[in-house]
Amino acid sequence: MSVKNQSRAMLLGGAAVLLWSTVATAFKLSLQWLSPLQLLGWASLFSTLVLAVAVSWQHQWGALFATLKARPVYYLLLGAINPAIYYLVLFRAYDLLPAQQAQAINYTWALTLSLLAVPLLKQPLRKRDMIALCGGYLGALMIATRGDLLALDFDSGEGVALAMISTLFWALYWILNARGTAPATVMLLICFLVGTPLVWALMAWQGELMLPEPRALLGAAYVGLFEMGVTFMLWLGAMRSAVHVSRVSNLIFLSPFLSLVFIRYLLEEPIAPATFIGLALIIAAVVYQQRGEREA
Questions:
Q1: How far apart are the C-alpha atoms of 39 and 46, rounded to whole Å?
Q2: Which of 9, 21, 107, 140 has its CA 20 to 30 A from that of 161?
Q3: Per-residue b/e over 154-175, b at no fewer than 16 CB within 10 Å?
């Protein structure tokens, strides 16, 4: 059982949020040298390796094999969604859109979760949910159109569609993931052990199986470690150490705004005023919806 320590929880949570804030920039930089499929293939490989080290450290390989043997079809589906389908769709969206747009639209996945919960979990769509959905998706539309809502003029219509579709797959993954009973790190490694070979098989089929140049490989390693692997474990550690979980979970709302700082100064991408307004709408919608869940 984890020892509760709020200071440690805030430190781990803050480190996770800081690292997550850099990944949108890392995506765009890496996509200068790699295709979305190549970035996913190499990043998922690095993530698999670091998760395997974590499972070895925790002496959980026995639990991993037992878990996979008990429900192979379930984990095949999870692994196909994450990392394979979700990140391939997301990286393609980042390849087509400015980083500020892709990362902000992707943040609406928490709202998409409430939509999927209606058919999959038989949960009713409350008035609060509908208000949050309207506010959140209005924010996404404002970001995608740079504030020109009536013109509906997108930098890339395909990119916006893919960014929205990625939220469906991420929300679906977490709905299915909630039905698992294995330790979180074990479940995540199983997904990568299943999904990574699928990605590499697709790379071979598409003729994209090649060793990248060092800077591209370094970018993929960064994405694999700090988007898919280490950061997840930091966040999990923060949640387990927290005396007041809500104080740690609220840190996540800093991530998209910190991300804009990295996008502005590392990518030198001018941040449109509509991005700040749209992002504020999205976060307000998510907070409003989650507050309703706690009060229910």
A1: 11
A2: 21
A3: bebeebbbbbbbbbbbbbbbee
